[in-house]
Amino acid sequence: MRLFPFLILTSLSLSSASAEIIRSTEKWQVKPDFEKSSNARESISGADCVPDGGLCLAANDERNYAQFFKLKKNRLDPDKKGVIRLLPKKVDGKKMGEIDAEGVVFVPSSDGKAPSYFYVTGSHGLSRGGEFQQSRFTLFRFPVKTRSGKPTFKYIDKKVAPEVERTMLLAETIRSNPDLATYADQRLDRNGVTIEGISELDGDMLFGLRSPCLANHALILQVPSEELFMETPPTSTTARVKLGDNVGVRDLTRVKDGLLILAGRSDDRRGSEDFTCGEERAPPSPSPSLWFWSGKSGDEAQPLGALPGVDVNASAETLLLLEETDTTYRVLVLFDGEKNGAPVEFIIGR
């Protein structure tokens, strides 16, 4: 099936097995702008949508709220009244800062009786300056209607609704995980833990890690979803996915037979004496790229290709699945550091 009449065909790959990626000439707009500040709308860092025309939710890594939007033809349509507060100014008397939200996922009800949820995850990493900020180590969820994605409760942008659940116990899980414990309290430029993607597969919540990367492998933390909002830290395992030297996960998106991985550089200070990710010291910066992974630990990720026409230093951080067929994936990529994420559409051969 031909999806679009006007496409630029660009063939580039990460290996001889890479698929073909097409960058569409269709121009996507965001109208009106995302709320509430220029910093927030230039820091879109995660989003996901309810299938078949339901609401989408976008998070940013500068504030403590998320915002609903709709996907329309070649346009993202943010709801100006759809700002939902996630974190109060204080928790247990302690002042909260930014969430550093990095990932969003919609998880439908498993049986049609239980609620569906939107989840939003903080980075669970130290600040750039190495400061521990409790607000960053938070995972959120709230119930929504399965078909529309609308919250099952009333909400406003200035106060956290009681239906918005939060947990800070995932940080303890990370510190006790044998693959992550060494890196749990390190800065990003010391290979410290930083979550940048979230998805759900077969009852597990998957957290894609930008860092650490170990011997050319990125890590994905797998946690039973049913354990996440209990009163004790959830159990976990990790999967090592070979993406290359200095390459980490920037987002995860569920597809029919597994996951699409949006990947990019792991450490911004590549080549400094602090860098500890891979064995090599000064290769070119890795380009933003797409991969397919089955979601099964031990299975190799399959390279789909670098994103054509995207600068090697661009921060491609959000991946939305627009359409999946037997032969192609149609996706939208948003960029941190660009106004409203500057969305770009790509078609990927399978």
TrEMBL record:
DUF3616 domain segment(s): 133-338
Keyword Transmembrane helix: no
Ranges for region Disordered: 268-287
Record's signal peptide: 1-19
Keyword terms: Signal
Entry's transmembrane regions: none
Record-linked InterPro entries: DUF3616
Pfam families noted in UniProt: DUF3616
Protein name: DUF3616 domain-containing protein
